[in-house]
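Ticket opened by: R.M.
Priority: normal
Category: complex prediction / small molecule

The reporter submitted a protein together with DQA and asked that the result be attached to this ticket for the collaborator who will pick it up next week. Submitted input follows.
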Amino acid sequence: MRKREDFVPMKTLECRGITLSDKQTKICVPITGTDLEEIKEQAEKIANMNPDVVEWRADFYDVKDNDETEFEQCLKAINDNLKKIPIIYTYRTSNEGGEKSIDVDDYCRLCKYVSEISEKYNVAMIDVELYENKDQKNIGKLLLDIKSTGVKVIGSNHHFEGTPSEKDIFNVLKTMEEAGADICKIAVMPKEKVDVKTLINASKKANKELNAPIITMSMGELGAVTRICTRMTGSVITFGAGVNASAPGQPPCEMVRFLLKASESGKIDCNVALIGFMGTGKTTISNALSRITGFKEVDVDQYIVEKEGMAIKDIFAENGEQYFRNLETQALRDLQEEKETIISCGGGAVLRDENVEILNTGSVIVQLKATPETVFERVKDHTHRPILNNDMSVRHITELMNQREPRYNSVADIQVNVDKGDRVETCYYILKELEKTGHFSVE
Ligand SMILES: O=C1C[C@@](O)(C(=O)O)C[C@@H](O)[C@@H]1O
Ligand SMILES: [Mg+2]
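Result attached by the on-call engineer:
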């Protein structure tokens, strides 16, 4: 079962007929057209994708003098084509990773103008870059003016250059709430895996401690899983790409929709055993799949290490490979007693027929496949790969792969290519295949 701690406290906010909730994340698709024609076309296409909310990224729009009537024309065209889907108005400035820089007075004037016509064009929320503008004296007054029209304010802040500390992320969100934002949003860029965890932890804390709902994401391919595991972060909105992505790491809207459902209500009747050559990303995919689905993850080697209280290399040194392989077989047997578990198998685990039989009693075997070139790129700097350390080359990897891969191919129930290295897409593919074979279902 999923761990209760993963579930965040219930929090809701009503915005012109749409209810934001940390229990059921809404999908927002951005419009990124640069002229009225393209904006219209995108609105029409995006309406057919049926997102919960549409964001108009007004900074993509090429317009002279930031003329209010031209902005109004766009909003009208968008609303006409969206047929009731509520709109978020966002002018993302270049300070925060947007397309254009804009005079702060123009920025505020436009926000205010859009708020005044918000009801007419079904604008439910206005994004205000509170953090960069925080020293701007009139920001409190601006927020009050905007909010008096019935539209909600999303305070927003973007870090494209890195991920602030957990404390700093929390403080940004808290400062926004104190400044009067109805919803507090932050987007950060991860450089390492730990940054993704930082964003998740900061979000958990903010969702628990603030009154305002939050929207958070870690950007780029590495962070993309946070756009799905909102079950953990409490983010009330997630962004999926429609015609174009408006920020790095946004998976397509359809993929977000399926994975969100998988995350909120996915049911699986088996364990997932991940196999594949070293460096194909078993640990990485196990982790992403676990964050997305809430299923437990167990690394077989790790399981053995914990059970024996000894490092693998010491077990090998003291008792020999055969002894280790017997422990591995026992571990696989133990693990079939588990349910809803992602089992990362060591590279040699499925070489024994008995192990495959054991896995087949409770698991679907998923093989990650990559070319020797991809594997080389991923492991070339690793120092903990004893088999490769004396000859780290594509040629050597190819040789080893030729020995192992036919066996993997013959025992796998599902094969997935990971050369592109997109975690979220790989998880999507695996869950879709599990759905096809009747092992996985969403409500
Ligand atoms: O603030 C956000 C979040 C975002 O940057 C993202 O990473 O999905 C995309 C923007 O369009 C939106 O305004
Ligand atoms: Mg590993």
